[in-house]
Amino acid sequence: MTSVGFVLMSYVFFFFFLSVGRCQLQTGFYASSCPNAESIVKSEVSKATQQDSRLPASLIRLHFHDCFVQGCDASVLLDDTSSFTGEKTAGPNNNSLRGFEVIDTIKTSLESSCKGVVSCADILAIAARDSSVITGGPSWDVRLGRRDSTTASLSGANSQIPSPAFTVNQLISAFTAKGLSAEDMFTLSGAHTIGQAKCSSFSGRLFNNSGSGQPDPSIRQGFLKSLQSACPQGGDATALQPLDVATATTFDNQYYSNLLLGRGLLNSDQVLSTTVGTARNFVKAYSSDQSKFFSNFAGSMINMGNISPLTTPNGIIRSNCRVPS
Question: How confident is the model at residue 325 (pLDDT cuts 50, 70, 90)?
Answer without folding.
Answer: confident
